[in-house]
Design a protein that fits this description.
Strand 1 (2-3) and strand 2 form a beta hairpin. The chain has five helices and two strands. The longest helix is centred in the middle third of the chain and has 21 residues, at 69-89. It has helices at 18-32, 41-59, 69-89, 94-108, 111-114, and strands at residues 2-3, 11-12. It is mainly alpha-helical. It is globular and about 50 Å long. The mean pLDDT is 89. Pfam families: MazG-like (PF12643). One of its GO terms (biological process) is nucleoside triphosphate catabolic process. InterPro entries: dCTP_Pyrophosphatase, DCTPP. One of its GO terms (molecular function) is nucleoside triphosphate diphosphatase activity.
């Protein structure tokens, strides 16, 4: 893997779609255990929220830098895994929906108005 020079924490891959490969692995893991029966939309959404709560708990009463990197990685993986499974359940492309949201936010928060400003788009 090669690291992106502009964003060193982002690893570039030669695969066409690393996200699709990860989603396939998650589905295989789930199906080998016959857990698909439990993965309805409501429960997947609840799982995202619960895992996000566990992610938040890592930071409770601590400074930003006092969190175990291993625990952070585990909780981020849990949140992202359930997001991928929920998107797959609804046949949504993660890359498409994120790009769409970036475009919507660019319209709501034009850089010339929002730069350095934490106000909601309705207040800009």
């Amino acid at each position: 893997m090669v690291f992106n020079r502009e964003f060193p924490f982002i690893k570039l891959s030669n695969k066409m779609s690393e996200i699709a490969e990860l989603t396939k692995k998650l589905i295989q893991f789930r199906d080998e255990r016959d857990w698909q029966q439990f993965h309805n939309s409501k429960d997947l959404a609840l799982a995202v929220s619960i895992e996000a709560g566990e992610l938040l708990e890592l930071f409770l009463w601590k400074g930003n830098e006092d969190v175990s990197k291993e625990k952070l990685k585990d909780e981020l993986a849990d949140v992202l895994s359930y997001c991928l499974l929920l998107a797959e359940k609804h046949q949504l492309s993660i890359t498409d929906i994120i790009q769409d949201k970036i475009n919507k936010n660019a319209d709501k928060y034009p850089a010339h108005k929002a730069k350095g400003n934490a106000k909601k788009y309705t207040e800009l």
